[in-house]
Amino acid sequence: MKQSEGVVAAGHEVTANAAREILRAGGNAFDAALAALFASCVAEPVLASLGGGGFLMAQSKGEKPKLYDFFVQTPHHRPPEEDVDFYPIVADFGTVQQEFHIGMGSIATPGVIKGAFHIHQDLCKLPLKEIIQPACEAARNGVRINRFQHHIADLVSPIIKSSPEALHLHESLQHPGTIALPDEIIANPAMADAFEILSHEGEALFYQGEMGRLLTDTCRDQGGCLSPFDLESYKVERRKPLTLNYRQSYLFTNPPPSVGGILIAFTLSLLETADLGSCAVNSSDHLQRIAHAMKLTHELRNARAIGVSTNLDADLEILDNEFLSSYRDILSNHKTFSRGTTQISTADRWGNMASMTISNGEGSGYVLPGCGIMLNNMLGEEDINPHGFHQWPLNRRIASMMSPSLMISKRGDVIATGSGGSNRIRSAIMQVLVNLIDFDMTIEKAVEQPRMHFENDLLNIEPGPADSVITALRSQFPQLNAWSDKSIFFGGAHSVMRQKNGQLSGAGDSRRGGICYLL
């Protein structure tokens, strides 16, 4: 069988196609991931932006995985609350609603631009000017709006309509003043210009130069928190991944100060003794064991305030065997009864693997003049502000649920996965990995298998399990919300796999418009 040249799984056809073009041009998995990053800013503007932050889990052939942290940072100074431009909007998911905060005061120090340059310098083969070309072409020629992108734009329409500049990024040409409908085409030539100028002048244009001054001057004059020093002092961190042995498979995921990776590791550690392999898929035993592990993880996070303390060693203590044993006892003794974020996963023919997760929150409503780039609203995300709004610690990398991950199975297969979805990220990734390791599913089935998520006493579950299974679950989780369809709510785990024999495969998660291309 002819070996594949590469594979990419991402959240939009334009995003995935950019990576495919770069792989065909001789680029490696990291070139492809960067090409997809820039293209996602064009095609998935609610989910991705150079004004946000992210992470890359990278494995070069023959080397140990490494984690690039280019997530957002809190400012060095906190202005008086009354001077900050900061206000709420509500996103309606249909079954649930979630409040977000936007305005100039919601913008944290962005890391994507510096992250892209560091990744390019360390890992890439092709010139950055070549890597950005697919994104530039898409931005100038325009992207046809699909139903999923229209759906998420509609969800955050209060943000899009919060300023003329924000609306312009999504505006219908046929009906000015409204958000473009599916099949309409939107172009963003200013973003293409910004990409090309950055590729020529380098990251300093934003962190020390004119592009960044546009942002910090507006923050100074219109109620923001960022100063020039915040941009100048921002650093990309290279971290050793958090590792876990799960059923003779090895997980590499995002370490503290981020939150998601350690919670995924804790849940998997609980399930280590749950004998999931003996359960039928979607049976009461299967789903109740997963749901109870989720519940214990949620309770642990709240009880231990994971991600809130600056003591990272204390967070890691939850993976100690002595600590885990008490939680495993609770799980085994239980009697059973019969935001805006996008993921890019790539692999190439040389054995390199990349899992990248990027986020702009939902966007602050502020667009960098002349650049077509909306800035993040991470200081307005309740999930990552556990102290409360306007109480964030100074000059600190914000704790994130984003957890780009690699897993090496006991057979020697390597999986690159990750997800968007705020607090649902950890449950999405954990379930994909369990499906692969415990139930030996194909990557496609593992990604599309119905999901659950437990939070604040509520168990959400997608359609698929039998009515009798739902009834049994409800007896244990009285607050159970049975969804009628798969939903963006449960994340978007775009994933790829390299088998030990070198064969590649992948899956784009249908919940978030996923696309997979195998070369």
What is the element layout, followed by pairings?
Layout (H helix, E strand, L loop, with lengths): L5 E5 L2 H12 L4 H15 L9 E7 L6 E5 L16 E6 L4 E6 L9 H12 L4 H4 L1 H9 L1 E2 L2 H9 L1 H4 L3 H5 L16 E2 L2 H13 L2 H4 L2 H13 L5 H5 L4 E3 L2 E5 L2 E5 L6 H12 L12 H21 L7 H5 L4 H13 L7 E8 L4 E7 L7 E2 L4 E2 L30 E4 L5 E4 L7 H13 L5 H6 L3 E4 L2 E4 L5 H10 L3 E3 L12 E4 L5 E4 L7 E4 L1
Helix pairs in contact: 1-2, 1-5, 2-5, 5-9, 13-14, 13-16, 13-17
Describe this protein's structure.
It contains 19 helices and 22 strands. Helix 5 runs antiparallel to helix 9 (189-201), helix 13 (260-271) crosses helix 14 (284-304) and helix 13 packs across helix 16 (321-333). A 7-stranded antiparallel β-sheet has the order 8-3-2-12-11-1-22, with helices on one face. The longest helix is centred in the middle third of the chain and has 21 residues, at 284-304. Residues 305-312 and 326-338 have low confidence and may be disordered. It is α+β, with helices and mostly antiparallel strands and 519 residues long. The chain is globular and about 60 Å long. Strand 9 and strand 10 (249-253) form a beta hairpin.
